[in-house]
Structures are given as structure tokens and as C-alpha cells.
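Entry 12.
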Amino acid sequence: SPVRRERRDGGLLRLTLVDARRRNALSMRLMTALAAAIAEAAADPEVRVVVIAAEGPAFSAGHDLKELTAARADADRGRAFFEETMGTCAALMTSIVRCPKPVIAEVAGVATAAGCQLVASCDLAIAAEGASFATPGVHIGLFCSTPMVALSRNVSRKHAMEMLLTGASVSAADAARMGLINRVVAADRLTEETEAMARLIASKSPLTLKIGKEAFYAQGEMGLDEAYRLTARVMVENMLARDAEEGISAFIEKRPPTWEGR
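Predicted 3D structure (C-alpha cells):
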């Protein structure tokens, strides 16, 4: 498989892209494997947080251009395969957003085009000092339209358009300043820092994380009044949950909470 799965203490699941020879390009094979791993993590009560990492000098170089180019030999000049590829990619990215478990990107190396889209689709991202990000499709006559969806939902319109129109590479420090990633750390501390954040999040109520993540993305697509109506309903239902009752009682009684996930 192009995706290695490793369980860590504390409910962490590491999904590592291991197709380094192809710079972890998002081939149909890799996207299918990653989507399957995300789906399994979503359904596994033992998994609290998912970390997506990669081997080699590239986190992901985006779509597999050789695979896409080979499809041009088909009778339809590749249309059916192109549609399948883009549909699979969209389903993968939305599955990360809709996964009830928080997903963290651990980025060492370059993340370009759909690889940058993958980073932007994760809930959080931590990058090594030498990492870089780009949506360089404009260089080869292929505007990064699908990466634009995740990118424009993470950074300001001006920053997104600059990346999309110029195709220029953005350093990890600039990516953090723009809001594409959360923080930059020394390369030799990347996994340690990422897993520390993951364990901190995993220590919270899994039900609360699920409720909060779903509401966060839902309200972001709404107008102000609708967003408040939704989140007010969510708060009421959350208050009635056993974990909220336990958490509030534990806070008042100055003791650690015991989560039941309900």
C-alpha cells in the first residue's frame, strides 16, 4: 500500500504516504488507499486523532501527471479518467473535513498543487522549517482550480490569488503567517511536536471533538444569523451530553474528567 498505518499511544493513528519515488503524487492508487484509511479511522472508536505524514523530500507533489498524461491515449482523450481522478480527489478531501476525528498534516518537504490542497484540507498543519507550499499549475497551463477550494477557505483571498496566479513557492514561515499552517518547528522535532499536539487534542472528549468539528465547518458556510441558530442548537445538545455534564462537574470539583464519549 502507498499508505502506511501506525497506531500510537493515546489514540493516535499515523497515516504515512510512502510512495516517495513518485514524490507521493496523488495517484488513483494513493488517493484510494488514503480515503480507505480515513474511513476506517472515522469508524474506529479507538482512534482519537489522525496524523497524515509522508516519507521522502515531498509531502506530496500533487496529482500524478504521468498517470493523467497516459490517459490521453484513450478514445475520449482522457476525459473519463480525468473526471474519475478529480472526483476521487474531491471525495478524499471532503472525507477529511467530514471525518469526526481531528486530522493533522505533518509536513516535511514540499506540498504542491493537490498536495497543498491536502494540507489545507486537514484541520491543523505543522511544518518543518524547510517545508514549502505552492499551487504551481499556472506554470504548465493547468490552473489549480480544485486546490483553490481548500486554499481559499484557509487563507485570505489576496494570498490565495497570489499563490494561484503566480505559482510561486511559499516558505513554511510565510505559510504560517498566511494561516495555511499552524506553526513551524525544527525538522528534527517535527514528529515530536505534531504528536504532542495530537495527544493534547486526543485527551479531550471524543464526542465533544466530533460535535465541534462538524459545527465548525457547517457554520463557516452560513450567514451570520443562520450560523448562530445552528451553533445555539449544537450548544444545547452538547450541554445535554454526558461528557459535558461530567466535564463541568470535574471542573467545579477540581478533578480530572472521565470521558465516556456520550
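Annotation: The chain is about 50% helix and 15% strand. The chain has a mean pLDDT of 97.
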